[in-house]
Amino acid sequence: MPRVTPIDPLEGPKLALAGRIVVMDEAFTVIPRGVVYVDKGSIVAVLDHAAPAPPGFESVPVLDTGGTLYPGLIELHNHLSYNALPLWDVPKRFTNRDRWSGTDEYRKLISGPMQVVGKSPDLLPAVVRYVECKSLFGGVTTSQGIQLFSNAGVRRFYRGIVRNVEQTDELELPEAATRVADIEARDAKLFLTRLLKQSCFLLHLSEGTDEAARRHFLALQISDHEWAISKQLAGIHSAALTREDFDLLAEKEGAMIWSPLSNLLLYGDTARIKAAKASGVRIGIGSDWSPSGSKNLLGELKVAHLVSQAQGGIFSDREIVRMATSEAALILQWEKVLGTLQAGKRADILIIEGKAGDPYAALLKAKETSIRLVMINGVARYGTPHLMQRLGAAGEGIRVGGLARTVYLKQATADPDVHAVSLGEARDRLKEAFQRLPQLARDLEQPPPTLPRLAARRHAGMPEPLVWSLALDELQETGVDLRPRLPLRGRRDFTGPKRLAARAAGPLSEVLKPLELDPLTVADDDTFLDRIGREKNLPAFIKSDLKKLY
Fold first, then answer.
1. Which contacts qualify for 493-498: CB closer than 8 Å, 24 or more apart?
2. How far is residue 467's CA from residue 108's CA, in Å, rounded to a whole number?
3. What span, in angstroms and rounded, lies between the C-alpha atoms of 74 and 326?
4. Mean of the per-residue pLDDT values for the chain?
5. What residues does 63 pair with on adjacent strands?
6. What are 254-285's pLDDT values in tens digits?
7. In whole angstroms, what is the distance from residue 456 CA to residue 465 CA?
8. With contact defined as beta carbons under 8 Å apart, do 486 and 191 qualify?
9. pTM above 0.70, yes or no
10. In whole angstroms, what separates CA 428 from the centre of its chain?
11. Nearest Cα to Cα of residue 148 among 125, 165, 168, 170
12. How does 438-473 read in b/e, with b if 16+ C-beta sit within 10 Å?
């Protein structure tokens, strides 16, 4: 049974949105002049503009959006917590995750700041608000969530306005798993048992380009004919897999999640997408995180397009759009509810300006300022002031690339901590905190002033007060993992990357420096494309051609 009400209860007025409609069904239907009819958060009908309105909509005014309508973008991989951090100037080419996750630069610029922010309770709601809006402003309606971990071992997800694949609280949207218990992460048979109980398991796999990274995949073999792979498994990155590996993944009905910019920034190469396509592997897409990836999924689609073109046009534009819509829904087993604009589906809708030209190329080339509306479950969440006002979503006024936009953050089922924080407050709070990182680290390094009180509580048999922090499972032991750590050649030969060990290199207060908060969009970041141009590992075509798509 659902634990609580869903992200947005299925309620609300009847709406009729007109424009060019890109359905994203199997036939790749495009309606040049169509209307999407919405009631109580769901699509009732998708019809040609000349067709009669469906029953009950005869008196509902049709709102001309002036644009092209797509299903909301579904992002299948993102470490959202880190998306307040700026792009990392990757110092050299690495070959697998172990090579960069323990460097001094990584600690100074990524893991250290997140450990400080993650343990500062007053900053957690600001992080959630800021990074979910960052996704939203790129057309994302579904992503991975932000999980908290407590001193009592309890875990929970923050509830925001962007749908979270890991906690939907809806039977129609089965929840994807993204973490595996440590004991299952170290035993292939136990891992397979757990895998078969899920609808979808989004798990990091073979992060890198060398044989050490590939070993993570090979360790999924249980016996000559048995592998810990099933249709539930979606391997994130899978950059080291060969054609033979992809053939096996396809045979077992597994999928992969592609994050091309992050792979290129860190490793100078990305997954063998030509082999993956030839094998028939399902492919979703995700921008990974801001330190070594795109600011949002709209940007990642541009990189996917450029990589595909550089390799001879492996994917058509509509196949790339499919990775973030209907194909993503199939990987999650949500295809009956999301991924296309069809009657009976949820009203997750992305609208960009313009109705001319190829609609798939138009989305891949769209700028962030091209977005006119983003709707989740029939609720207008972000868009131009005109459309937001017409849809009854009077919210917080902001500017994106110098243009006026409105973001609507009111939510009946909101997390009480996040609900009280506006986007402007979140931005101000994080900006100030990032400038004070060394001091915040010093504060955390001091013994808590309540230590005597805690000792008295323990002596009296009273439980300690619950303290929450970000669940940075890749950095610290929390009892679960983001990736399997399976034995390949014996019980002591574990393949998974090691977590960061406690360092003797000095406390974080002596390592950290003030950082700039990463802007919400490329349109508001004067340095992003220049920094991309200076990245050591990126191929020349990304450095030159990505600018043209912005």
1. 494/186, 495/215, 495/216, 495/218, 495/219, 496/185, 496/216, 497/96, 497/97, 497/98, 497/101, 497/207, 498/98, 498/102
2. 25
3. 9
4. 91
5. 17
6. 999 999 999 999 999 999 999 999 999 999 99
7. 13
8. yes
9. yes
10. 23
11. 125
12. bebbbeeeeeeeeeeeeeeeeeeeeeeeeebbbbbb
- Give CA separation, 303 vs 308, 361, 526, 541, 546, in Å: 8, 13, 19, 10, 7
Compute the distance between CA of residue 384 and CA of residue 382 in angstroms, rounded to an integer: 7
Structure confidence at residue 310 (pLDDT): 98
DSSP states along 305-332: HHHHHHTT--S-HHHHHHHTTHHHHHHH
From residue 196, how far is each of 192, 205, 317, 334, 518 by CA, in Å?
6, 17, 33, 17, 39
Structure tokens that stand for 20 in this block: 């060019």
Per-residue pLDDT tens for 449-491? 555 655 555 566 666 667 788 888 777 677 787 887 777 666 6
The dihedrals phi and psi of 397, each to the nearest 5 degrees, come to -80, 135
The residue type at 58:
E
SS3 224: coil
Domain 74-326+516-540 grouped into CATH 3.40.109.10: no
Cβ-in-10-Å burial (0-12, 13-18, 19+) of 235 comes to buried
Question: Dihedral sign, CA of 107, 256, 311, 242?
Answer: positive
Query: Any idea what DSSP says for residue 288?
Result: B
3-state secondary structure of 218: helix
Contact 78, 415 (CB under 8 A): no
Question: Is residue 230 helix, strand or coil?
Answer: coil
Output phi, psi for 431, to 5 deg.
Answer: -55, -45
Helix (H) or strand (E) holding 205: strand 201-205
Mapped onto helix, strand or coil, the DSSP state of residue 58 is coil
User: Which residues are bridge partners to 470 per DSSP?
Assistant: 148
Angle, alpha carbons 543-108-502 (nearest 5°)? 130
Is residue 301 predicted with pLDDT exceeding 50? Answer: yes
- What number of residues does the chain have? 550
Model pLDDT for residues 2-40, shown as the tens digit of each residue:
455 677 888 888 999 999 999 999 999 999 999 999 999
**Euclidean distance between CA atoms 344 and 546, whole angstroms:** 37
What's the burial of 313, exposed, middle or buried (CB within 10 Å: 0-12/13-18/19+)? exposed
SS3 at position 349: strand
What is the per-residue burial (b if ≥16 Cβ within 10 Å, else e) of 337-371? Answer: bbbbbbeebbbbbbbbbebeeebbebbbbbbbbbb
SS3 content of the chain, % helix, strand, coil (to 5): 35, 20, 45
Q: What distances in angstroms separate CA 315 from CA 100, 119, 275, 367, 506, one per listed residue?
A: 30, 43, 12, 21, 48
Whole-angstrom Cα distance, residue 476 to residue 499?
A: 7
Under 8 Å between Cβ of 520 and 137:
yes
